[in-house]
């Protein structure tokens, strides 16, 4: 689709120069506005699909003030500004732009950023439409016939969550029903705890009578609003119930809509998140659409509930009930865990799996990035076609091209046979570029070309080959830092980072350790045939006390060893590995005098310590890589990056 770009910039020379560059690059520029007011008029008249937005504009207006209008109209925007002071950057970031270019910038950088931003915006719109469609279909397919009000609404949180994320959803119904307040609090991927009036009153620390009589609990709304971060905190200052609920459920922002039903009565949907900048104009519009789709359903259950009065004892359950509407354990194929941060990863997998979007998975070694990639592939429409894994760290620099694109027979010395490259093998499916941060700059150029065109030639072959491949890349490096240090190409980074997923380290999701450990005990007991039947809570607490630098891989190997040592019964006591955060033996006793060390120094110390114990051997059984719970190639690259001397590593 040809993009219609509006330039909002008060310096005419700069704006005109931009117009010339964009037109030359094939974009159509529908206007130049020097102030927010002019921009609003042009948006109305010209209907741009994209906006380049300066921050400080004529008439003392600010580009950031235009952002809510752009978000509400689904128009993507990039800031272009010479001002980079912290508060300007923070205000700009809070409006969720697709990019920020600091003036003066190179034409090339502008065009690359715009190209990627457009792709990202289109992918987002597509995903949003798909989610909305699924939401409507699921809503239509819901059984409205029998059951209590709680039973009828029990499936709502799962359905709504797929469309609009929340940690707590409050539904406020017209007064005079069996219950006029239901809240669903998220406790797992498709798990919610249900609270009705009595339990909500208890959570807010008031009696049921006070709760019911306090009109403020019904959220006094005109038609709707959202409050993020500081705004939400201001609300808490004068609303004691909200304050208590927010403390109880650790909520950091909210948005709500009030809907009028045909019978003149109202219901309110209030969404809460633990993430303090979760809700923007975009989500608010989505909420309005979701609420409108829900009107008929709510009307039905409200009328049904009135006709059931009086005397139908369908409510309330005295204790909060845990509702797990339609959990599908196998959906995430072996990704175990229920911590908040893992559930957030599952949400993202769910969101992106069926779209063709490229995904960049980041996180420390052993956190499960490859698992996430496998899961996205299996849940995608390409699941029947291959998932081809390429370990970029293991690609020999001189063979990158032939590995990725293949070669013809006799293309170079040693090419005795024709070879089909990884991209061709993955045609129709997915290619997983693991450890992408290890690619040499030369290889990055070659990869970039394929990603742009999805076309390449086999080495020694003159015929272009076109493929249809979805890209998933992963790295344990901070790619933004790699870009800043000149080790990773900015254009390649933009191409890959269309949908980023961060997999958190195990030390930040200790809630998952117990369930993972139990699972690994079962797995290795079965594999080794040893009758080890479980692991005690004391042992799990010990596991939680360690900080797992090798993450889940290290935990998995550790449990495997414990199963072998224990041989039968329940694992009770563990000999935990020495934590690198504690001083290693040679420094024992002198910790008080130790200067503070950076994480990198501690990591280097620990690797040297393990290497010494393994006599410098990296690979194979009992080698340093196995003990550290990472692939030898990753350890090699860590050794190189941390500048560990060769005397410590033999292979
Ligand atoms: N959530 C999980 N549930 C169960 N097993 C997991 C989970 N996450 C990871 N694992 C297991 O932990 C090990 C490491 O996972 P994986 O290889 O996906 O990590 P990674 O982040 O890709 O590591 P690297 O960066 O070193 O390549 C694997 O054996 C994997 O099966």
From TrEMBL:
Keywords: ATP-binding, DNA-binding, Nucleotide-binding, Phosphoprotein, Transcription, Transcription regulation. Gene3D superfamilies: 1.10.8.60, 3.40.50.2300, Homeodomain-like, P-loop containing nucleotide triphosphate hydrolases. Residues 4-118 form the Response regulatory domain. GO terms for molecular function: ATP binding; sequence-specific DNA binding. Signal peptide: none annotated. The modification 4-aspartylphosphate is found at residue 54. PROSITE patterns: RESPONSE_REGULATORY, SIGMA54_INTERACT_1, SIGMA54_INTERACT_2, SIGMA54_INTERACT_3, SIGMA54_INTERACT_4. Residues 335-564 form the Sigma-54 factor interaction domain. One of its GO terms (biological process) is regulation of DNA-templated transcription. This is Regulatory Fis family protein. It comes from Mucilaginibacter oryzae.
């Amino acid at each position: 689709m040809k993009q219609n770009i509006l330039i909002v910039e008060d310096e005419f020379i700069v704006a005109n120069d931009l117009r010339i560059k964009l037109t030359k690059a094939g974009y159509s520029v529908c206007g130049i506005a020097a102030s927010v007011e002019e921009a609003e008029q042009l948006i109305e008249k010209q209907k741009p699909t994209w906006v380049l937005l300066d921050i400080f504009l004529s008439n003392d207006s600010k580009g950031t003030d235009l952002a809510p209008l752009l978000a509400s109209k689904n128009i993507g925007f990039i800031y272009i500004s010479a001002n980079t002071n912290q508060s300007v950057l923070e205000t700009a970031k809070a409006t969720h732009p697709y990019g920020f270019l600091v003036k003066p910038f190179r034409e090339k950088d502008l065009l690359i950023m715009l190209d990627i931003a457009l792709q990202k915006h289109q992918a987002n719109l597509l995903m949003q439409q798909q989610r909305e469609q699924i939401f409507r279909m699921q809503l239509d397919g819901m059984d409205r016939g029998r059951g209590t009000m709680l039973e009828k609404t029990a499936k709502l949180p799962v359905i709504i969550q797929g469309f609009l994320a929340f940690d707590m959803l409050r539904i406020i119904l017209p007064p005079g029903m069996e219950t006029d307040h239901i809240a669903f609090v998220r406790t797992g991927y498709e798990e919610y705890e249900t609270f009705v009036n009595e339990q909500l009153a208890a959570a807010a620390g008031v009696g049921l009578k006070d709760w019911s009589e306090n009109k403020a609990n019904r959220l006094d709304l005109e038609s709707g609003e959202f409050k993020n971060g500081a705004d939400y905190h201001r609300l808490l200052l004068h609303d004691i119930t909200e304050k208590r609920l927010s403390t109880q459920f650790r909520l950091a922002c909210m948005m709500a809509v009030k809907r009028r039903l045909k019978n003149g009565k109202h219901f309110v949907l209030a969404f809460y998140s633990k993430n303090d900048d979760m809700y923007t104009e975009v989500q608010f519009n989505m909420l309005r659409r979701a609420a409108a789709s829900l009107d008929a359903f709510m009307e039905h259950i409200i009328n049904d509930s009135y006709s059931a009065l009086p005397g139908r004892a369908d409510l309330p359950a005295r204790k909060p009930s845990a509702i797990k509407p339609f959990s599908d354990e196998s959906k995430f194929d072996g990704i175990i865990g229920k911590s908040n941060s893992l559930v957030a990863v599952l949400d993202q997998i769910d969101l992106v799996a069926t779209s063709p979007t490229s995904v960049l998975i980041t996180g420390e070694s052993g956190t499960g990035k490859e698992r996430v990639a496998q899961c996205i592939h299996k849940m995608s429409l390409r699941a029947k076609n291959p998932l081809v894994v390429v370990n970029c760290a293991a690609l020999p620099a001189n063979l990158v091209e032939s590995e990725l694109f293949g070669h013809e027979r006799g293309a170079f010395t040693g090419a005795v046979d024709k070879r089909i490259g990884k991209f061709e093998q993955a045609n129709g499916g997915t290619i997983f570029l693991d450890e992408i941060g290890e690619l040499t700059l030369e290889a990055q150029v070659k990869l970039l070309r394929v990603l742009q065109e999805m076309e390449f030639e086999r080495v020694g072959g003159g015929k272009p080959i076109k493929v249809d491949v979805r890209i998933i890349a992963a790295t344990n490096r901070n790619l933004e830092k790699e870009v800043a240090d000149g080790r990773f190409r900015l254009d390649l980074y933009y191409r890959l980072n269309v949908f980023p997923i961060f997999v958190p380290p195990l030390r930040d999701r200790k809630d998952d350790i117990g369930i993972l450990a139990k699972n690994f005990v079962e797995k290795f007991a079965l594999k080794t045939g040893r009758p080890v039947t479980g692991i005690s809570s004391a042992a799990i607490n010990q596991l939680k006390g360690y900080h797992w630098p090798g993450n889940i891989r290290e935990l998995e190997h550790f449990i495997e060893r414990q199963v072998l040592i224990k041989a039968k019964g329940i694992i009770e006591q563990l000999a935990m590995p020495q934590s690198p955060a504690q001083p290693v033996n040679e420094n024992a006793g002198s910790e008080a005098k130790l200067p503070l060390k950076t994480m990198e120094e501690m990591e280097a110390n620990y690797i040297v310590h393990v290497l010494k114990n393994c006599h410098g051997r990296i690979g194979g059984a009992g080698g340093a890589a196995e003990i550290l719970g990472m692939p030898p190639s990753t350890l090699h690259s860590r050794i190189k990056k941390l500048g560990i001397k060769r005397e410590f590593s033999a292979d």
